[in-house]
Amino acid sequence: KNKNEFSLHYWQANAERQIPQIMTNVFSSQHIEKQGDKSSRIFGTWNYQRKCFDLTLSEGVSVSELNYNLEQYSGTNLVTYINSKSNEKSYFSSVSTNFCVTNNVHLNSSIKYDFRNVNIYEQKSEVGYNVKNNVIDAMVNLDFNKGNWYNVTLLSRFVKNQNFEPAIIPSVFFKLLPMHDIVIKTSLSHNTNYPNLNALYYIPGGNIYLKPENAWQSDLSVKYQKINNETELEFFYNNVTNWILWQPTQFGYWSPNNVRNVISKGLQIKTICNLKVNKFIFNLHGAYTFNIAKAKDKEFVSEQLPYLPIHAGTASLRIRYLNYEFCFDELIYGTRLTSNYGSYSHLLEPLWLTNLSIMSFVKIKKSKLSVEFKINNLFNTNYQLILWRPMPMRNASIVLSFKI
What we know:
- The longest helix has 5 residues, at 197-201.
- This protein has one helix at residues 197-201; strands at residues 3-19, 31-50, 53-74, 77-100, 105-122, 127-146, 150-161, 167-179, 182-193, 213-226, 229-248, 254-277, 280-296, 301-302, 311-321, 324-333, 351-364, 367-376, 395-403.
- It has one domain: Beta Barrel (Maltoporin, Chain A).
- It has a 19-stranded antiparallel beta sheet that branches.
- Strand 15 (311-321) and strand 16 (324-333) form a beta hairpin.
- The chain is built from 1 helix and 19 strands.
- The chain starts with a strand and ends with a strand.
- It is 1% helix and 72% strand.
- It has 404 residues and is mostly beta strands.
């Protein structure tokens, strides 16, 4: 039987925030730093299905506005140093298909088109850009599977970005199930990441000299899963040329630069445990990552990328009883460098944060109303995620949501 589905999606987001002063400037000068974001996005999707064929068409538009303002006192006068406005309009369209060649072989393909126009202007310096970009992304993959025993996927993408050279991106993925509760996965892929228009042209911080990232990525994982519990161990190795690294500048805002070569390798352990006792449901999630990312460039060799800890971990415990849910979250970071010049880098101390939340929800026919009370930084830890940028001490919030 043929099946047709149509869906329409709309997002609207508005945010205004005042950025805290850099700690080194608190006593030497007063400044006001603000950022405003507005975005709207709408797209429609049509999906057609028959016995061995699937077709999906999507089309949409989006508009966004990003404003940045930096004012600083000079004596008793408030002087504007940066007043930047960025407006972006985009149109996107895609077609994808899924065809069953045989019961064990599937052929998938897609083609996407993306058009963006960004108008950026900084009033103080009277500098601006009006730039356009067209991107075509075509993909085809062949999927082989033998029941629940193994699966092999061969994938190739062709990406043409108007502002850069075209890229051919091959990948291969392999999955093996030697036993019903053991899953082994491995993959090898090449990837190209193009800088977007804001990364290139936004004022302040944009870098018109950015080059695309090129990377060879590989991983190997083993997962043990049984009923409501699973544990996964993953090893990864990535070799990246022209890594796009975002860092805060001495003026506070962020700016991207290319790092000639980065080798990132390590492992990750994840575990999930679910348990039901009478009317209580317990969910425990935990993850630990060991990641060494060495950077090499003309001017430096860094033992670790800035702000990327060698050791990082998360843990979450959720307890649900009837229409109530209690959540306890832990975030742990090891020592972090703040610049590429290892021995000259200011160190951010290890971090351990605890967040607590309590939620109550009620179903109203097919809708769901929930109220959540959150306490962030429960133990009032004094910390920085970014050098000289103070983070909130203990704080609370109430979140009211209604899902239709």
